[in-house]
Amino acid sequence: MYYIPGKMAEKPTKDVKHKRTKKKLNLTFIVKSMTSQERQQNRETLELAEKNRYGREQELKEEKTVIRLPKHPEKTISDKTRDYFTQCRA
User: Fold this and answer.
1) What would the pLDDT profile of 40-81 be if each residue is shown by its tens digit?
2) Euclidean distance between CA atoms 28 and 35, whole angstroms
3) Residues annotated as region Disordered (predicted)?
């Protein structure tokens, strides 16, 4: 949690309800690139960072689909029809 001095003193700005992880990639980006070689290096660094991010997103999506299970079995059309008619009779 982060705290801001002043009016919001000692009040949390946001409740984090999940665990966040950080991964250091050790990629450097030249802010004021003057030469074409530095610009090329920046492009390659950016491509590598995007590939790493895409790969990590795919891993997280696979983990999500594996972990999640339906809470209740889905009703079939015959079950829904039966429920509808029992409600109409009542």
Assistant:
1) 999 999 999 999 989 988 888 887 766 566 666 677 888 888
2) 16
3) 1-21
